[in-house]
């Protein structure tokens, strides 16, 4: 279970780190499923980008450094909330394909949160 959780943490961490950066840069020529980024208000870009980058770091760094390991399930829970908020945003725009992705990501992040809280918590010392 520990290996599965680490793989999910790493994959979610990479995904949300780079997605968070895109919120700050919003490059031209994004693919159609990401065209919604052009319509997102700047304040939501900054909030989402910051939350996603910080959560991505919280998924990976506490376990690697063994410092503040309780932050990992909190970071995953934060991503659940961000993804539920994103689903609401996409629902208001009838972007149902994006809602499915948001709910999948929220589910995976929720599993990581539960896994690191109850199934295989990270510890400050020793192997985990």
SSE layout and pairing:
Blueprint: H1 2-25, H2 42-65, H3 71-92, H4 96-119
Helix pairs in contact: 1-2, 1-4, 2-3, 3-4
What is the count of β-strands?
0
The level of helicity is over 70%
**Mean pLDDT, all residues:** 95
**How many individual helices?**
4
Order of helices and strands: HHHH
Largest sheet: none
Count up the domains.
Answer: 1
**Class from helix and strand fractions:** mainly alpha
Q: What is the first-to-last residue Cα distance?
A: 10 Å
**Percent range for β-strand residues:** under 5%
Low-pLDDT ranges: none
* Bulk shape: elongated
How would you describe this structure to a colleague?
The chain is mostly helical. It has one domain (2-119). It has four helices and no strands. It has helices spanning 2-25, 42-65, 71-92, 96-119. Helix 1 runs antiparallel to helix 2 (42-65). The longest helix has 24 residues, at 2-25. The protein is elongated. The mean pLDDT is 95.
List keywords for this structure.
128 residues, elongated, 4 helices, 73% helix, mainly alpha
Task: Give a summary of the structure in a few sentences.
With 128 residues, the chain is mainly α. The protein is 73% helix and 0% strand.
